[in-house]
Structures are given as structure tokens and as C-alpha cells.
Amino acid sequence: QVQLVESGGGLVQAGGSLRLSCVASGSIFNINAMGWYRQAPGKQREWVVIFSSGGKTLYAGSVKDRFTISRDNAKNTVYLQMSSLKPEDTAVYYCQDPHSGSWGQGTQVTVSS
Fold this sequence. Notes:
The protein is mainly β. It has strands at about 1-5, 10-15, 20-25, 35-40, 45-50, 55-60, 65-70, 75-80, 90-95, 100-105, 105-110.
């Protein structure tokens, strides 16, 4: 069982930055494989940054060069640094462990224009 807890969301103006955190606990297989997803109102959940089976970190085209994933293995924490935020980045952001299939509860990010 893996538990994931996201934090760091909030309200920010367009062009601003936020850093999301995801703390993992339990039977963690590989924190480096964890990724971030988001779900905007009325839309399906979409991947933002994932770790491919080939060992590459993949960013969705809409966030490439603006978002950066990082990990602190000692703290079992995955971060998502988001900069140059746009109103279309407004969504609930989730981290996910692909090995266990576990999801966090999500953290709301709202970007005002």
C-alpha cells in the first residue's frame, strides 16, 4: 500500500510560480517513476509529466519548458516546479505511483488572468 499526499497548490496570477510537493509513504517501489497529472473542470485527467518505460522523463507539450519535476529520495518526495503559469493550467494536480497505481487526493491550482 502506497499513500501519496500532495500540497503546495493555491491561487496565483498568470506568469507566477508554484511548487507542488507529493510525499509518499508505505511500500514505495521507485519514487523516481512517479509522475504528475491534472484534471481541469469538465475535462478528463491528463498526464503532465511521467517517467517512460524507456527511462526518460516526458513532459506534456503544454507544460514543457515551464514545469520541472524533481525528487528527494531521502524524503520520499516528488516536486513539481511550475513557472510562467497560465490560466489554462488551472486544475487539480495529482501525483501517481505507476507501480502501485496509487493516487493522491490532489491539490488545487488556480491561475488568474
